[in-house]
Every structure is written in structure tokens, then in C-alpha cells.
Design a protein that fits this description.
Order of helices and strands: HHEEEHEEHH
Distance between the termini: 54 Å
Number of helices: 5
Oligomer: single chain
Radius of gyration: 26 Å
Shape: elongated
Structural class: alpha+beta
Helix content: 40-55%
Largest sheet: 5 strands, antiparallel
């Protein structure tokens, strides 16, 4: 669902910008596409980050058990061509979930949300020390699903920033669409029954009656 909303949002933004470039394109249609796409894109960003924020908040109450690193490596991330690469540590760790029937599990999640840094040396340092194979870890385990675990509980800043950005996009899109609707009513659209005719509407009425 989120991927579909992202696609619709980007399509609306692109369609609105293309209409603005056309010499005789209606400004209202271009604005509706542009700001409608912006609002849909904001909703997608909000949904994308909500799960990480919610799970991060819940994970703060999960019980903590001892774990051990099984394997680890550095992974390079490049969001788009020509951008500065970022790095993160990718690891697999092993732990035994608490309960009446303890069972050994393996997981790889470090946090709810992407954790990456442009500092490659810092990642390599982590791999050589706290994330080295055999290193001990403190693992937070979901009591409702012992196969789910995380090393860094709590909401991450990146997820919060994405959610805030999505909220701004939704509010801005809704505000601008509301302005377009009001302007359309005041510039030749059907008059509101409780409002007097504007000067432009009176001229249009006089031309039709002449």
C-alpha cells in the first residue's frame, strides 16, 4: 500500500509540474495535481515511518537477554547515483528467548529504522570491537513473538524526521487544495447560496443574459 501511495504521489507531482510548463494549461488543474500529489506523498511517508515509531516505542518494554554475534560485515548504501555513500554494520546475532520453553533464535535487526553513517571508519571500528563475531550483546526480545528482537530499542530520530516531513506535506497539500477550491468558487464557479455574487460572476451572468 505504501509503495502504491508513493507512486501516486510522485505521479501527481510530476503531472502538476508538467501542466505548469504548458502555455494554455489550466492553473487550477495543475495545482490540484501538484498539491494532491504532495499530500499523498506525505501520507505515504507518514505510514512508512509509523510502524518503526510504534515498534520502537513498544520495544522499550521488552525483556532483555544475553546474545552473541554470529557474523558481521560492513554494507555500503548509495541512495542514488552520485550521492555520498553511507555505511552500516550488518550482523546476525544469536540469543535464547525467555519463557517456559527456552529456544535459541537468530536475528539481524539493530533498530526500528535505518541506521547508517557516512563515517566508514566508525563502522569498521564497531565491527572490530562490539560487533566482532563472538562478542556479547544485550538483546531486547518481543515477549509476544520471541523470534523478533532488536539491539537498540526506542524510536529512532530518522523515523521521527520522516513522519514530521510527511505530516508537513499532508497539511500543506490539504491547505493549498482548500485554497484552490475556494478560489474556484470565487472565479466563475457555482456561487455559494449564502454568499453574494462576485464582480466576475456578475459580469458572466450579464453576458449570458445579454
Amino acid at each position: 500500500m505504501t509503495a502504491a501511495l508513493l507512486l501516486i504521489g510522485f505521479a501527481g507531482l510530476a503531472g502538476g509540474l508538467l501542466l505548469m510548463l504548458l502555455p494554455r494549461a489550466p492553473a487550477t488543474a495543475a495545482g490540484a495535481l501538484l498539491f494532491g500529489g504532495l499530500g499523498v506523498l506525505g501520507l505515504a511517508l507518514w505510514l512508512l515511518s509509523f510502524a518503526d515509531l510504534w515498534q520502537g516505542w513498544r520495544s522499550q518494554r521488552w525483556p532483555v537477554v544475553d546474545g552473541v554475534v554470529v557474523s558481521s560485515r560492513a554494507v555500503e548504501l548509495s541512495p542514488w547515483r552520485g550521492s555520498r555513500p553511507t555505511w552500516r554494520a550488518e550482523l546476525v546475532y544469536r540469543y535464547t528467548a525467555p519463557g517456559q520453553a527456552p529456544r535459541e533464535h537468530q536475528a539481524s535487526r539493530q533498530a526500528f529504522g535505518e541506521i547508517a553513517t557516512p563515517d566508514r571508519e566508525a563502522v569498521l571500528q564497531d565491527l572490530a570491537t562490539r560487533f566482532a563475531p563472538g562478542a556479547a550483546l544485550r538483546v531486547h526480545v518481543n515477549p509476544a513473538d520471541p523470534a523478533e528482537a532488536v539491539l537498540l530499542p526506542g524510536p529512532q530520530a530518522k523515523a521521527g524526521i520522516i513522519a514530521a516531513l510527511g505530516t508537513v506535506f499532508v497539511l500543506l497539500g490539504a491547505w493549498q487544495l482548500g485554497r484552490l477550491l475556494r478560489d474556484g468558487r470565487g472565479n466563475g464557479g457555482p456561487p455559494h447560496p449564502s454568499r453574494p455574487l462576485t464582480r466576475r460572476q456578475r459580469r458572466a451572468r450579464d453576458r449570458l443574459s445579454a
